[in-house]
Amino acid sequence: xxxxxxxxxxxxxxxxxxxxxxxxxxxxxxxxxxxxxxxxxxxxxxxxxxxxxxxxxxxxxxxxxxxxxxxxxxxxxxxxxxxxxxxxxxxxxxxxxxxxxxxxxxxxxxxxxxxxxxxxxxxxxxxxxxxxxxxxxxxxxxxxxxxxxxxxxxxxxxxxxxxxxxxxxxxxxxxxxxxxxxxxxxxx
Amino acid sequence: xxxxxxxxxxxxxxxxxxxxxxxxxxxxxxxxxxxxxxxxxxxxxxxxxxxxxxxxxxxxxxxxxxxxxxxxxxxxxxxxxxxxxxxxxxxxxxxxxxxxxxxxxxxxxxxxxxxxxxxxxxxxxxxxxxxxxxxxxxxxxxxxxxxxxxxxxxxxxxxxxxxxxxxxxxxxxxxxxxxxxxxxxxxx
Lengths: 188, 188
What we know:
The structure is a homodimer. Chain A has three helices and ten strands. The first copy, chain A, is an alpha+beta fold. Chain A has a single domain, classed as Pnp Oxidase, Chain A. In chain A, strands 1, 2, 3, 4, 5, 6, 8, 9 and 10 form a nine-stranded antiparallel beta sheet that branches. In chain A, a hairpin with a 5-residue loop joins strand 1 and strand 2. At the A-B interface, strand 1, strand 2, strand 5, strand 6 and strand 7 of A face strand 1, strand 2, strand 5, strand 6 and strand 7 of B. Strand 7 of chain A pairs antiparallel with strand 10 of chain B.
C-alpha cells in the first residue's frame, strides 16, 4: 500500500523503510526485491544490465549477496571494474531503491559452505557448457551439469543508497557510507 | 502467457517477439516495458541505474526515445559517455530484454514539436527547482514549475539486443546492428 507522506519526514525512518524492502526480497521469493537489476561497466566502458537474484542483505553491515556463474560476463566486468549498481522497484510501496556497490568476487574454498547449501535443483545454474554467452548453433545446444568450481558469490559492499518515493509529492533522499548513513533529502 | 518453446527456434521470430514487447510499452501504459531501467556510466566510471519512461520505439530504425530533465544526472552521464543500457523484464512472457544503446541528447528548438505534445500535467516533470538531485533541507522543499528549456529528449540508437526467455529450457540470443540484426543463439 502507499505509505502516507508523513511517514517519510524522518531520514532514518525512510532509510529503514528502504532496507526492509530490500531484505524482504531475501525471505520472500515473490517480492519484487528478489530480482534486482545489476548494472556493471564493461571493458569497453559501456554499461551492462541484467536481472539477478538477491541472496542475502544485511543493513547493519551494509552488504548484499548475489550468486552467479564464475564465467559469466558480469563477473568479468566486476573483476575489471568492481563498481556496480542495483535497482529495485517496489510497485506497492511506489518506492525506487538504487544501491551503489563495490563487489568482491569469491569462489572455490571461500564459498564451499554456501555451495553446500545450494539446493540440488539450483546447482545446474552453475556449470553451463559451453559457458554463458558463448555462441551456439541451435537454441538448445547446451548442457547444464552442476559444477561447484563455477559457483561464484558476489559480496557487495553498499556504499550509497538512494530512495525515491512516488506519491502525491515525490520524496527522494540519498544516504552514503562515507557520511555514516545520515542521509540528505534531494530534489526529485 | 508463456510462449511455447517451438516459437523460438527461429532467430528472426525471436527478435520480432522482443521488439513487439518493447513497442507495447509505448502504447500500453500498464505494460512493464513502459518503464525500463536505464544504466549509464558516471564520470567516476561507476554504473548508475534508474527507471525511465519509454516514449517511442521503432524496430525499423532501431531507435528508442526517452524524455528527461536536461539537468538530471543521466543527461550529465550520457553527455560524457553516450553508452547506455536498457533493461525490460516481461513477467507474462518470461522474457528479459537487454538493449545496448548510444544516446544523443536533444533540447531546445530541436525538440519543440515534442514539447508541444507533452500534456500540461506532465510538464512539471521538466523544471524542478532546485534541479533534481540537489540537497534540500526538508523533503518537500522544492517546486515544480514547467520549463520547456529543461526538456531533453534522449534519442537512443539501439546497437545490440539480447533476449533471454526463461522457460522449461532457457533460450538466449543476441542481435547486433553491426551484423545486420541476423543474430546468434547463446548459451544461457
